[in-house]
Amino acid sequence: MTNETNAASLDIVGIGNAIVDVLTTIDDSFLKKLSFDKGSMTLIDENKAKELYEMTTNRIQKSGGSVANSLACVAQLGGKAAFIGRVRDDKLGEIFTEEISTTGTIFKTPPSSVGPSTARCIIFVTPDAQRTMCTYLGASVLLEPKDIDLSLVKEAKILYLEGYLWDNPAAKNAFIKAAEIAKNAGRKVALSLSDSFCVSRHRESFIKLVDDHIDILFANEDEITNLYETSSLSKALEKLKKKCDLAAITIGEKGSILISNGKEIKIDPFILGKAVDTTGAGDLYAGAFLKGYADGLKPELSAKIGSICAGQIVTELGSRSNTDLLNLINSYLEN
Prior knowledge:
Ribokinase-like, alpha/beta, transferase, 14 helices, UDP-N-acetylmuramoyl-L-alanine:D-glutamate ligase, kinase, Carboh/pur_kinase_PfkB_CS
């Protein structure tokens, strides 16, 4: 890392969708009636969001969003994090702002006073712990270049970008602006590919983004094989090695594969109990990984820390852990 990076006052600044998660448990037959592919993320409009919301029972409402979840993990592990994203000045916007601020994450993006309501993600969790997400992006798509807090980006060791935002042209431009600012300040830039369907929609521009700006890439098996248009994970990884020095590819219950300076390192999963909800697994993996890396830990140890946190969050409902993650990590590393 450069001297500038060491002098940073923040560990991570993230840019992503500011979303309130609405979680509910259902059986497979109910999901089949809804006609959504299990494990997918489907974009919906506000009317569909209201319809699905009314269909949910025993719902849990929590501040969410992929990058926001990762940053909450960073803060929970004692790191200094900041989030850039847009909400509306409504009830869900208040829930998001209050909950992310409670984690210790800095959130200063002003809410919209007009336009669509705050984004929400209806998450259907089936007995196999798979989550099927229906997302209304609402106010989050109003993020634009002028919302990027230059001082936050310059002051963070790592800028973390959420692939989901690539669906919005203005947010896409905000991404590129932030990445250029971070690079000019000597910082690292990380990206989560977010979703295989998102990758399909923007494959060429994602490949260019990885080639031009990204130092650290997070993806799952479906996303990375989709990016490089192959059904073979090994072939996708070979292509990735030529483009990105550091990447973490999660492979579900089999753990993850770390790409570091052209080498593949298998990271075993941490099984800490029965999986009840996989909603936040990738988010906490990335958050814990980035916290470790920002602290100067080697990539392999950072990946193991990510795996521990992912192993814990799947035993809980939702994307924010109620467990003392720092104590959990220390107990495993000591052993």
